[in-house]
Amino acid sequence: MTEQARAHRITLAASGRQFQARAGETLLSAALRQGVVLPYSCKNGTCASCRCRLEEGTVSYPHNPPTALEFEDLGAGFGLTCQAVAESDLVIDVREIEQVADIPVRLLPARVESMERFTPEIMRLRLKLPRAARLQFLAGQYIDILMPGGKRRAFSIASAPSEADFIELHIKHVDGGGFTGHVFSDMQEKEILRLEGPLGTFFVRKNSERPMIMMGGGTGFAPLKSMIEELIESGDERPLTLFWGVAHESDLYAQRLIEQWKRIHPSFRFVPVLNDPHEGWGGETGFVHEAVLRDRADLSAHDVYMSGPPAMVHAARNAFLKAGVAETHLFYDSFDFAPDVPPARD
């Protein structure tokens, strides 16, 4: 049987748009290969950014189990496009992201321009791009650093899209991470890296006038920084509250910058949340998503953006949906602080 004969037709329920999925190819990989951009982030089944509802047909999960879904979700017909493989023609209900489709994904070299330790475990890298090859991206997207042996590491872009010559990354040291170990031990300025991007569908929806809540955990602050700087540059003055959850006050590595935002943006609030506060701390403590709900129990009028570890995103998503935010107004980026991963299965 030919490869074409074994392909299955995938139909998007809302628009009727169709694409073909090859044998063994995930729905997400098939869609992106044909210029159809669906929501995604981690690509390994842990974040649920790519959650869809299966309306017709059957799928399997030969690569990784859909760990971000509850058993009840699977029984109700939900799936993850980043792991699901079509076993028949399908009709799926999932949002299509048209704005990202117009931005090309590129392979580029980048030179390490500067390195700054925000904390003993977090490094700020500024990468200079080739003069003739700028990286067009939406605030909130990420890049992959390409490594020997086909491995790659994903990092959110912390700089605003207007900063054309450089991109900024916030790197957390990970035990057993080959790339982060190199960053914190023997990386030197002027070193050349190879990157691919932009990637992901996490970005500010500018066609909304709703007040915004942004919630970050650890270096999940990085894509939110890019978003906030772009909003300030564009003169967007919608009410915006940033919740940033970390272990210790010393982990709030951008407080001086945040103070500048408070002076510039008339409707900006900042709520730091410490999981392990020192004696005398008078601010919010505990889980960052619970601090959001203590601040405002009803989220039905808000756009919510969140970025951080999968456990944080998963808990917050469930809690925020119960607090009234619509699925179409809840956007998130989830990433593991994990050892280096092999190439994505396409």
Structure description:
The protein has 346 residues and is of the alpha/beta class. It folds into three domains: 92 residues, Beta-grasp domain (Ubiquitin-like (UB roll), Roll); 97 residues, Translation factors (Elongation Factor Tu (Ef-tu), domain 3); 123 residues, Rossmann fold (3-Layer(aba) Sandwich). The protein is built from eight helices and 19 strands. Strand 10 and strand 11 form a beta hairpin. It is globular and about 60 Å long. The two termini are 21 Å apart. The C terminus is likely disordered. Its cofactor is [2Fe-2S] cluster. This is CDP-6-deoxy-L-threo-D-glycero-4-hexulose-3-dehydrase reductase.
Tally of separate helices: 8
Q: Distance N terminus to C terminus?
A: 21 Å
> What is the CATH homology-level superfamily of the largest domain?
Nucleotide-binding domain of ferredoxin-NADP reductase (FNR) module
By DSSP, the count of extended strands is: 19
Widest beta sheet: strand line-up: 11-10-13-8-9-12
Would you tell me the overall average pLDDT? 91
Shape: globular
Provide the β-strand percentage band: 25-35%
CATH architecture of the largest domain: 3-Layer(aba) Sandwich
Oligomer: single chain
CATH fold-level label of the largest domain: Rossmann fold
N-to-C series of helices and strands: EEHEEHEEEHEEEEEHEEHEHEEHEHE
Concise summary:
By secondary structure, the chain is of the alpha/beta class. It has helices at residues 27-33, 71-75, 98-101, 178-185, 221-233, 255-264, 288-295, 310-322, and strands spanning 8-12, 18-21, 51-56, 59-60, 78-80, 85-86, 90-93, 106-119, 122-128, 142-146, 152-156, 166-172, 192-199, 212-217, 240-246, 268-274, 284-285, 303-308, 330-334.
